[in-house]
Amino acid sequence: MVSFFMSYRSDDDHPVARLLDDVLTTRFGSDSVVRDDPRVILPFAELGRRLSASAALIVVIETPSRGESAGRVERLPGFSRRTIAAAFRQQVPVIPVLVDDAELPSAGPLPEARRPLGQQHYRRIHTSSVQADIDHLVDDLATAFGREAAPAGPAIPLILSVEPVRGFMPPPSHGPSAAIVYSTRTGDLEAADSDRLRWWHPGFVAHYSTRYEVDTSDHSIVVNLRLPAGTAAYHFEASITVGLRVTDPALIVRHAITDAGVLVREFLLDTCRPISAQYAIDEIFAAQTALDRRLTDDASALGGITLHLSSTRLSLDDRTSRYVRERTSKRQTDAMRERAEHPLERWEARRLSLWANVQADRAVNVEIGATPTFTGPPTLPHTAGSAAPWQSVGSEPGARPPSSETIPKAERLLVARAPTQVPAGQDLSVEVRLVTEGRSVPADAVAARMRSFLVAEAGTPVTVTVHAPAGLHAEGPLQQTVLVTPDDDPDPIRFGFGARTPGLHRVDVTAWAGGTFLTEVSVEVSVADGGPFRDGQPKVAPLGAPRARPGEVTMEVRFDGSRYTFQLRSDAALFAPVVESVTNTPNAAVENAIREMQQLAGGGSRYTAAMTREVIRSAGIQLWSELVPADVQDQFWQVGGDMSAFTIATDHDVVPWELLYPLSAQRDAGFLVEQVPVVRRTYGQHRNAKVGLRNPRFVVPAKAPTGAHEEVTAIRAILGAAHSEPITRADELLTLINSGALGATHFACHNTFSADGSYIDMDGGRFKPTLLAEASIRKLLAETGPLVFINACRSAGVAPTYTKMLGWAQQFMSSGAGAFVGTLWAVRSDSSARFATAFYRSLADGATLGAAALAARIEQQDDPLDPTWLAYTVYGDPFATAAV
C-alpha cells in the first residue's frame, strides 16, 4: 500500500490541503495519508517510523496572510518544522505544493536542517482550477509511487482459433501466417508449420484433443506509457514503437496468451520505470537516450514472443512544461540579478539566460532521432591566459549549468601499489593514486573504478586510509586527504611502513567522502628474513558514491586479535583512528549477552515487562561503555545531532553492535537503532544504490518451521510475485546462485550454528556458506544485486545465531548481493515473520534500506518482553532503494 505524509494539520483552515487529503484517501485508500497530529509532539523514533513508511512528504504551502512576506514557511500555520527536517535526514522525498502565488522559501534564511526545502521541485495548484490540478497531481503520484492506470492500448490476439479434434476436421482458416498447435489427450503440445498431421489417420482422434491456430505474422504497435521521473510527482510521456512476432507457438498456447499487447505493455513498464526514475524532468534528453540504448540493444524473448524495440520518444505534458519554464525563468532572473553589478558579469548573465532558454526548450521538445545542435553556453570573452568559465562543461546533451552543480566526468579509479616481497627490517611504501579512467597507470598497478563519481567544480575532498597489521610498522600518518578537481588528478599519496615481522601481510586501502564509503582495494606484502625485494602489481577499484551524504556516519571497527581500531567518519568531522588493546577477546561476554537475549526471546524469563526492558537496556549500555572507547563516544555525541544514517563497517566480528545503547550523563536517546537507520557493511562489499526485489524466490525446505508457508504467502503478496514452488533442494539453490540470475531470495527455514559454522538442512544435503565460494570470487550476484533475507526459526520458536565469522552475510555480500538481512540471536517465529513483512512492505513502498529496517524495528516494539526488534542485522547501503 502506498501512503503519504502530509505536513498540515487537519484542524487548521487549509481548504486546498484538506481537499488534496480527501482525493489521496479516495485514490489510495483510507490509511494512505499520515498527518501531523495537533495534539501531541511525536517522539523522534515514531516520527521516523511514520516517515520511513511513507512514499513522500507532501508540504502544502498556502499563500501568505496579509502583511506577511511570501515564502515565510516559519510563520505559516500548521507546518511541522521537525517533520520537514526529519524527512530530509531520512532521504524521504519532499514535494512542496504551492497554492496560487505562494513561493518556496529562500534557502539562505532557513536553518540548515530545512534548507533543502528551498531547492525542491514543486507542484502548483491554482484555486481557480483546484480540482483539476489536484487530480493531475494525484495521477502523477500514482505514476511515481504506484502503478500506472492508463488504458491498456491496442489488443493483439494471438490464438486465432480453438477447435476440438473430431472425426472430420475442416482445414485451417488462417493460412500460412498461422502456426498449428495440437494438444494431446495427456496434456502435451505438438506444433507443426502446417496441418501436415494426418487427421484422418485412425489414431488421430484418440491421440489429440484440441487444435489451435496461433498468429505468427509480424506486428508493429505503438505503446503509450506514463513513466515516473526522478523529480517527485512529475512524469514523462513515452511513445514506444515495438515490433513483435511469435517464435514459440506452443508456449503461447501453454501460457494461454490471448493478447500480446498487455504482455508487451507490462514488459515495457517493468523495463522502463527504473530507468526513467533516475532522471529529472529537465533531463529528458538523457532519459530518452538511456531508454533507447536499453530497448534497442537486442531482441528480447518474452513468453514465446520475440520483441524488436525500435524507437522511443519522450515528451512532457502541458503542466510539466509550464513548470520547467517557470523554474528556468526564476533561475534566470535570480542569476541576472546577482550578475548585474559589473558589465562583464551582465554579459555573463545574458549568456546564462540564453543557455537556460535553450535547455528548457530542449527539455520540452525532444524529438526522436534529433541530434542536438546546441553545444553549450556561448563563450564569455576573457583575457589571454585565463580559463573560460564553464570550459569543463563541454557539449554533453542535457548538461546543467555548473555554477552550482557538480560536473560528471570520466570514472575515477582508486589505484594502490606496493612491493610483493620485502626483506625483514627494510622500509616499504604503499603508493595510492586517484586516477581518471583512460589516463596512464603503471603497468603493475591495481585499480578500481569510482563509479558515477561526481566532482564539485571547486573540488571534492577524498580521504584515503590504510589499515595494516602489527607486522608492518607505520612510519607516518595512516590517512591523508586530497582534493579531487574536475579536470586534474591529485598527486600520488605515499604511506610508509617498516617490515618488522616475517609473514604475509595484507594492507587495506579505503577511500571516503566524509562519512560516505567510496571504495577499497587490498595489496599483500610478504616479509621474509633475507628475502628479495620485488615490486608488485597495482590494485584498482572503482570510486563509487558521488559525494558525502549529509548526516551519514560510519564507524569502522577492525580487530587483529589483540587490539581494536575504531574510526568515526562523517561529513561534519573526520576523526583520527582510536586504538584499544584488549587482554581478552570479547567472545565470552558477547555470548553471555546473546544467551540472555535468547532466553528473553524464548519466553523463559520471570521478569516483568518493565524489568525486561531494563535488562535489555542494561545490556546495550554495558556494550557501549565497555567496547566503545571513551574518545569514540565523545566523537559520537559531536556528530549525533545531525545524523541521518549510521553504518558499522566491520568484518569477521562477533559483537552485536545493533544492541548499542549510547548513554552519557546528559544524553539518553534510546538504543542506537531507535534513533537512526543502522546498517552494516563488510569489507569487499560493493555499495549498491538499488536492492533487487525482482523475480523473488523462496527457500522453504521440507522440514520448515511452523508458519513458514504463511510467512512466504504474506511476503509474496507484498511483492506482487507470481506463485512458484519454493526451493527445497540444496543443488537447485546452488545452481540458481551460480547461474547469476538469482533474484530476491527469502529463506524461511531452520539454521544450525556451531563452532564449525552454519548450515541449512535441505533436501539433498546441507547448504553451507562455503558453497558460495565460486559466487564470491566471480561476483555472480552483482548483475541482479538481490536482497537476501535469511529468516531462520526453529519449530519451538527460536533460531540459532549465524551471522558471525565466515557466515552468510559475508559470503552473500561479497558475491554481489544488494543487501542481506539476518538475525544475531534466537528469535520468536511469530515475531520474526512480523518483522519480515513490515520490512518488505516498507522497502517495496519506496523506503530506503535503512529506513525500512528502522520501520520494521519500531513496529516490533509493542511486546516489551520480546527483544526481536534488536536481533536483526542489515548489510548494505542505508540509502539504497528497491529495484522492482
Short description:
With 884 residues, this protein is α/β, with parallel strands linked by helices.
Could you walk me through the main structural features you see in this protein, from its secondary elements to its overall organization?
- It is a single chain.
- By secondary structure, the chain is α/β, with parallel strands linked by helices.
- The protein has five domains: 4-145, Toll/interleukin-1 receptor homology (TIR) domain (Rossmann fold), CATH 3.40.50.10140; 149-315, no CATH class; 408-547, Immunoglobulin-like, CATH 2.60.40.2410; 580-681, no CATH class; 690-883, Rossmann fold (3-Layer(aba) Sandwich).
- Helix content is 28%, strand content 27%.
- The chain has 21 helices and 41 strands.
- The strands form ten sheets. The chain has a five-stranded parallel β-sheet with strand order 2-1-3-4-5, sandwiched between helices. Strands 21-23-17-15-26 form a five-stranded antiparallel β-sheet, with no helix packed on it. A five-stranded mixed β-sheet has the order 16-25-24-20-22, with no helix packed on it.
- Strand 1, helix 1 (15-28) and strand 2 form a beta-alpha-beta unit.
- Helix 2 packs across helix 20 (849-859), helix 15 (708-719) runs parallel beside helix 19 and helix 19 packs antiparallel against helix 20.
- The radius of gyration is 30 Å and the shape is globular.
- It starts with a strand and ends with a strand.
- 44% of the residues are buried.
